[in-house]
Structures are given as C-alpha cells and as structure tokens.
UniProtKB/TrEMBL annotation:
Protein name (record): ABC transporter permease
InterPro entries: BPD_transp_1_N, MetI-like, MetI-like_sf
Gene3D superfamilies: MetI-like
PROSITE patterns to which the protein is assigned, alphabetical: ABC_TM1, PROKAR_LIPOPROTEIN
Residues in ABC transmembrane type-1 domain copies: 97-298
Family: Belongs to the binding-protein-dependent transport system permease family.
Membrane topology, as annotated: Multi-pass membrane protein
Keyword Signal: no
Naturally occurring in which organism (per UniProt): Streptomyces yangpuensis
Record field: transmembrane: 12-30, 103-125, 132-154, 174-193, 233-255, 275-301
Organismal lineage: Bacteria, Bacillati, Actinomycetota, Actinomycetes, Kitasatosporales
Domain of life: Bacteria
Keyword list, A-Z: Cell membrane, Membrane, Transmembrane, Transmembrane helix, Transport
Database matches in Pfam families: BPD_transp_1 (PF00528), BPD_transp_1_N (PF19300)
Localization of this protein: Cell membrane
Length: 308
C-alpha cells in the first residue's frame, strides 16, 4: 500500500508539470498584452516602464525560462505575485479557496444524501409510480444547464419569495442557493447511477443466497447490496467533488460568490496570468489527490480489489 501511494504521488508531480506546461504554452500564444493590463494603456507606451515591469515579473525571459522559474518557486510554496494587486497569489487565493471549499462541501453533502437516497428508494420500489416519477425528473434535470438552474432559483427564491439573499454571503442562508444550483444536476446523475447499480446487485446470486438463508432484509441491503453497488457512485462523487473544489465558474459568477471560480474568470479578463496558473495548479492537484483517495476507498469497499 505504501509503495502504491508513493507511486501515485509521483504521478501527481508529473501531471502537475504537464498541466502547467500546457497552460504556459497556451498563455504564450493567446492574444493580448499582460504588461498593458499591469501598467495601464498610457504607461504601457513608455519603454522604460515596460522594461521595468517585464524584469520585475520575469516576462523579459524566454518561455522555458519563465516556466522553470515558476516550477522552482512552486516547489517552495510560492505561486508568484499577482499582477493587479501586487500581492502574493497564495495570499489572495487563500480566502477564496476556503469559500469554494465550504460551498463544495455543502453541495457534495446534498448530492450524497439526496442522490443516493432517491436512487435507493427507486431501486427498492422499481417499476412503481415513485420509480417512474424519479426516472422522469432525474432525466429532465440532467438536461438543464447550470446557469438556467441558478437563474431560476434566484428568481423564485431570492427575488420573488425573498427566502434567501440574491448574492452569496458568509452565512448559511447565502450558501444554500449556489450549493443547490451546483448539486441539482449531480443529484440526478447519482440517483440514476445508484438505482441502476443497485438493480444489478439485487439480481446477483449472492444476494439471492443471503435472502434464502434468512438474513434480515436490512442487513442484506446495507452489507451486501449497498456496499457493492456504491463503488461506481464513489467514483462519480470523487470526480464531482474535485470539480467543485476546482471552482464552479458559472455558479460563482451568478451568485457573486468570492471563490476560486470567480477569481479565475476575473483573472482571465484582466490577463492576470499568475492567478490563472495558480488556480489551475491547485485544481489539478485536487483532482489527482481525490483520485488517489477514491482508489483507496475501492479497496475498503471491495476486499477483492488489491492495490499493488
């Protein structure tokens, strides 16, 4: 197990290097002038100001040199200096990462509870009116774009009913609408996935044998059916949670939630490359770490899986 974890962490380093390398190349070929966004259009015409700013941020070096310099700083925990605010990127992103994490935790909790709950009920009462209604509504919700869900929730519950604030805040009531916006589509996916996998497991021979031996229904459900059907659900939840922690750009922009998604949108508009690269580096690291955690959960849920 220890060697497996060490090997996966080594792979994480390779993935981070590859992702940041591609991002550096993309930022290099994109149109625009970062120096102009730093100094302003008037000062950017002054050659002395341009040369000073390029030297300060290392923009006077070649792209490979800039990349090597960035990687060496990241290895020590330094994500560079923000172009606009002239502050450390890690200092700026710290509070935003915390805000995104709070929103992601609430959203994934809603997905886990309601998605798996609805899927379990639909599987246990398959082909009933409840099952057909669940299938219909989950299919419909999967097709709704996130921005449409967010705008509808804001219009109904924030503007008309005034149950929640229109813009997100630090309190729980300010988190509910953006969290529900993020969770609705995933709830539909998890419900359908849970229902499908549970129906397969319920038809398995070892479940029929357990029932024939007279084991209590609850024990059969939780020990045999739910545990074995949860592996693909855990995979999806891990991917979904990683995407949420990486920042929900559309939802954070709609509700003006001060997270990494909104920071990324603003940084792209301002050509603030250190923020863009910092957010992407963080997002890739989260995905790789969560994929490792999901693999470890596999072994815990199914003893037949061996990590070597």
């Amino acid at each position: 197990m220890g060697r497996y974890v060490a090997r996966r962490l080594g792979q994480m380093v390779i993935v981070l290097i590859g992702a940041t390398m591609v991002l550096f190349a993309c930022l290099f070929v994109l149109p625009g002038d970062p120096v102009g966004s730093i100094a302003g259009s008037d000062k950017a015409r002054d050659p002395a100001v341009v040369a000073e700013l390029k030297a300060r941020y290392g923009l006077d070096k070649s792209l490979p040199e800039q990349y090597v310099n960035y990687v060496s700083k990241v290895a020590t925990g330094d994500l560079g200096e923000d172009f606009i605010q002239r502050r450390e990127v890690s200092e700026i992103l710290g509070p935003k990462l915390a805000n995104t994490a709070k929103l992601a935790l609430l959203a994934i909790a809603l997905v886990t509870v309601f998605g798996m709950g609805v899927g379990i009920i639909a599987a246990l009462y398959r082909y009933s009116i409840l099952d057909m209604a669940t299938t219909f509504f989950t299919t419909m919700m999967v097709g709704f774009p996130t921005f449409v869900i967010g705008m509808l929730l804001m219009k109904w519950f924030a503007v008309e009913l005034q149950w929640f604030p229109q813009l997100g805040g630090d309190k729980l009531e300010g988190m509910i609408l953006p969290a529900v916006t993020l969770a609705i589509t995933d709830i539909a996916f998890v419900a359908r996935l849970t229902r499908g996998t549970m129906l397969e497991v319920l038809r398995a021979d070892y479940v029929k044998t357990a029932v024939a031996k007279g084991l209590p229904r609850r024990r059969v459900l939780f020990k045999h059916v739910l545990r074995n059907s949860s592996i693909p659900v855990v995979t999806y939840l891990g991917i979904s949670f990683g995407a949420l922690l990486g920042g929900a750009l559309i939802t954070e922009a709609i509700f003006n939630w001060d997270g990494v998604g909104l920071a990324l949108v603003q940084a792209i508009q301002q050509q603030n490359n250190p923020i863009v690269i910092g957010v992407v580096t963080y997002s890739v690291a989260i995905f790789v770490v969560l994929s490792l955690i999901v693999d470890l959960l596999y072994a815990a849920l199914d003893p037949r899986i061996r990590l070597s």
